[in-house]
Amino acid sequence: MRPAIIRSLSTGVNQSGVRDYNERLLLTLLQRNGPTAGSDLARMANLSPQTVSIILREMEAEGLLSRGTPVKGKVGKPSVPMGLAEGGVLSFGCKVGRRSAVLLLADFRGTVRHEMQLTYKYPMPEAILDFLRTGITDILSRCTPAEQSRICGIGIGLPFELWKWNELVGAPAAEFSSWQDVDFVGALADFTDLPVSIVNDATAGCQAEHIYGRGKEFRDYAYFFVGAFIGGGVVLNHSVYQGHQGNAGALGSLRSVGPHGESQQLIDTASIHLLEARLAEFGLDPQALWDQPQDWSKMARFVDPWIGQTAQELAKASLSVCAVIDFEAIIIDGAFPNSVKHSLVERTRRYLSHQDMRGLIAPQVEAGMVGGNARAIGAATSPLFDRYFMNGSMRLKA
């Protein structure tokens, strides 16, 4: 399906003194639609061609934009599409997961420049902060002075109220409770003056898919990311919706039913930690699930039934969320090989077709494009929204 061109996000303002808003508007339109001629941008943003021309020239001079190949029309001069410059803006993104942490440096086109990973039995604040400190220092040492000057911030994606999940990650409750007192902004201020943004890890994955993946194709959709524990996100009217406490789209907390009829959450019935436990039962090392590059082919006899169970749970969860909001699509991604993702999506479609859908409109079920690094890449987008982009609703972040 061809991505929809976003024309109605908002309108620009021609008066002086509001250049920042118009710059964000044009940058966001370029990000969403790709390289675009100035005349088309003026029409989309409802700005005068002269205003757009001035802004584009200034942003090109700053290194934010680059010129594309001129396109010849039937009459007049060829039009020159403008696009986001490679490396025009950079930001750090860090995903704090239950089994691993990833730190990367990406540009605002979604290209990952540098990446580091830390694996552990369960995450502890001291280890994560030390990983950030040494990792940021190491990555900066590999950047040129010009690249360092273009880094706009650090985004941290971590689970909501992480300290409440000690039993599932196998951590002592008293030790794990130290997460309640972690102040990332204060801790990182000891070794960097870059601004810090905190976002739910699954919401960060949704942000990455919305900006760099399938998000351009749909107006309203629910996003499931299957990691060690499943999570999700919500997009409404081309906007990633975070909610008033930043915890909207907590799809891992959807109700489910256990094997004996007991009440459980989706996180208990459709997460990779179930596959980990199954491998451990048979004396196999679950760490093989997280090794890079990922290859689960040698564990096929365990992976296949896990896909079947997870697909059934995702089909039921998809109908549950569609009963609340009329989503046109369900996007599924996760920390697994592409072959596993596509099998999971296909089976979810199959199970969904056999569900009781009276009173509901079945959504499209699609595979996400960003992949296992979605949460770290999405975390890196938070500083970009703070300074350069707008969400689909075009409301500036405070």
Describe, in plain words, how this protein is organized in 3D:
This protein has 398 residues and is an alpha/beta fold. It folds into three domains: 19-84, Winged helix-like DNA-binding domain superfamily/Winged helix DNA-binding domain (Arc Repressor Mutant, subunit A, Orthogonal Bundle), CATH 1.10.10.10; 90-204 and 376-387, ATPase, nucleotide binding domain (Nucleotidyltransferase, domain 5, 2-Layer Sandwich), CATH 3.30.420; 214-369, Nucleotidyltransferase, domain 5, CATH 3.30.420.40. The protein is 38% helix and 19% strand. It is built from 14 helices and 15 strands. The protein has helices spanning 19-33, 38-45, 49-61, 125-141, 145-149, 166-169, 173-176, 184-188, 201-212, 266-269, 272-281, 300-324, 338-352, 374-387, and strands spanning 36-37, 65-67, 81-84, 90-96, 100-107, 112-119, 151-158, 196-200, 221-226, 231-236, 239-241, 255-257, 263-265, 329-334, 364-367. The protein has a five-stranded mixed beta sheet, with helices on both faces. Strands 11-10-9-14-15 form a five-stranded mixed beta sheet, with helices on both faces. Helix 13 links the parallel strand 14 and strand 15. The longest helix has 25 residues, at 300-324. The chain starts with 18 loop residues before the first helix and ends in an 11-residue tail after the last helix. Residues 1-10, 13-18 and 393-398 have low confidence and may be disordered.
